[in-house]
Structure formats: structure tokens, C-alpha cells
Specification:
Elements: H1 2-29, H2 55-103, H3 112-147
Length: 148
Amino acid sequence: LYFITFFIRHLKAIKEVRQIYRSVETLTRTKWTWFGLACLPADDVVSMADSTATVEDIEGELFRIERIRDILVRRESELRYMMDDIQLCKEITRLKKELQKLVSIPDKDKSKEDRAREEELLLQINKLVETRDFLVDDVEFERLRCAQ
């Protein structure tokens, strides 16, 4: 279920990125005109903005930029969660393999160090699984918060 949710969110993120690219293309097509002050009388008011742009146009563009920024911040957060999840899964897998090697040794052949290492590995795995569970809960909380 987690992977299905992850996959669906990944597809949504791809769609958002495509929207961002379209918005960025729109932004790069916006032309700003700069006037040389030497050409104008001293009492004229000079605007750096394109004279055809209205206040509403500028406010609309600022709003779109803010939306794009929010989408990018949210996506960055999702990617960081994914990286943390991948690292935790790799470490859990590594520890499980090491534990499996120790468990495969018959009890009569195990040293005190082997038994202690088994206990240590179990504790580490348990701690990492709890950390990952917390991470998954945090991702779900963020998803619900963004949905509101």
C-alpha cells in the first residue's frame, strides 16, 4: 500500500513539474523594458516595467510564482523523505543480512560475542523500523496537511 501511494504521488509530482516548466516558460517570455534616463526630461516618471503590463498582470504573475515556489518546496520535502526512507531501508537490509548470518550458526557453536551481536542487531533493526514508521507517519501527516 505504501508503494502504491508513493507511485501515485510520484505521478502527481511529475504532472506538477510539467506545469512548473510551462509556467517557467511563460515567465521567461515576459519582457521587461528598461528606459535610459538620459533620453527623458527630468520631470518624467520612469517605470522599469513593460508599459503594457497592468498591476493585475504583475499581481497574477507574482501569485503564479508563489504557487510554483510552494510546489517546489513541497516536492523538495517529498524527495528528502524519500531519500531518508531509502537510506533507512538500505541500513535495515544490511543489518538483517548480518543477523541472518549469525542466526544460521547453530546455538551450540555460538560464542558470547555472537549472541551479544545478535541482540545488538535486533535492537538496531527495531530502532530503525520505528524511525521509518515515524517517517511514514510524518509523510502521511504532510500529505493530509497539503490536501487541506
